[in-house]
Amino acid sequence: MPLSYHMPLYRPPSEGDNLIIQVTLGCSFNRCSFCSMYRSKKYSRRSFEDVSEDIGRAARSRPDARRVFLADGDALSLPTAQLVPVLDKLKDALPKLSRVSCYATPGNILKKSIEELQQLKAQGLSLLYLGIESGSNLILKKITKGASQRGIAEAMQKAHDAGLKVSGTVILGLGGKDHWQEHIDGTIELLNKAPITYLSTLQLHLEADIVAEFESKFGEVFEIQDDDAIMEEQHRLISGLNPAKPVIFRSNHVSNALALAGNLPRDRDKLLSQLHVALDGEAALRPWHMRGM
Fold first, then answer.
1. To 5 degrees, how large is the angle CA 146–CA 213–CA 185?
2. Ordered structural domains, the chain, with CATH
3. What is the pTM of this model?
4. pLDDT, tens digit only, all 293 positions of the chain
5. Edge-to-edge, what's the strand order for the sheet holding 125-133?
6. Of the chain's two ends, which shows fewer C-beta atoms within 10 Å, N or C?
C-alpha cells in the first residue's frame, strides 16, 4: 500500500526520486515573508507509531531504497530522543540505506548540542538542507528570516564540526533593485567564512498569496529584479566566492532563469563565461511560465 502524504509536500530537487517520510508536518517557524510553502499547515510532530508504520509500508514497496528525505519543513526540530528511533527504524527496514537528509533551520541546528548532532550523524543522518537565503543582516531582517549572519555561520560550522554535510540555498533577487549589492556582498562574506558542501541559488518568485505580506514586511518599496539584473547578482556572487574548501555549485532549481553547474572555485571562469553569454542574449533562458518556487 503506497504512502498517503499530508499535502502539500515539498522536497529539494535532488531528492525527487528518493523515499520521503514525513516525521513532522509544516514548519515550526513559518514566518519567512517570501515563503508560502507551509502556510496552510499547522506545525505538529507525528507520533513514532505513525512514522514507523509509514516506514514499514515504504520498505515493503521500495525495499531497495538507498536514500530517504525526512519531511516536512524542518524535521530537525524534533528532539534528538525522537529522531534517533526513527533513524534506527529506517536502518532496520532498509538494508541498502546510504543517506538520510532533511531540511533544517539555523535555529534547529543551534538548539542541539554538538554531541546530539554527532549522535544523529552516527545513526545515519548525513545531509542538512539549509535555507541561507542571504548573508546580509539587513535583508535577513526585511524577510523576517529569524536569523542573523552570525547565527547562520555558527549553525553551518556546528553542523560541519559534527560531520554533517550542509547543502545551502541562496535566493537571488531578495534585495530588490535598491539592496541587491548589499544582499550579494553579505552572502559572499558569509559563505567565505562558513563551511558548506553544496550551494544552490534560487531566483525569487513570490506566490500571489504572499506578495502583500512580503512587501509590508520589507518596510519600503520593493522593486523586483529582472532576469538580466538577477544574472548580474549571480555574476557578483560567483566572482566573490572564495571558499576554504571546494563547493559543489548548482542553479538548477526550476525558479532560475539560467541553469548553471560546477565546482567553486575551480569552475569560476567557466560559470562566469556562461553568464556573459546569457547576458549578451546568446543563451536561451527558462520561460517565465515554467518557473516557480
1. 50
2. 13-290 (3.20.20.70)
3. 0.95
4. 568 899 999 999 899 899 999 999 999 999 999 999 999 999 999 999 999 999 999 999 999 999 999 999 989 999 999 999 999 999 999 999 999 999 999 999 999 999 999 999 999 999 999 999 999 999 999 999 999 999 999 999 999 999 999 999 999 999 999 999 999 999 999 999 999 999 999 999 999 999 999 999 999 999 999 999 999 999 999 999 999 899 999 998 888 889 999 999 999 999 999 999 999 988 888 877 667 66
5. 19-22, 67-71, 99-104, 125-133, 165-172, 198-203, 247-250, 261-264
6. N
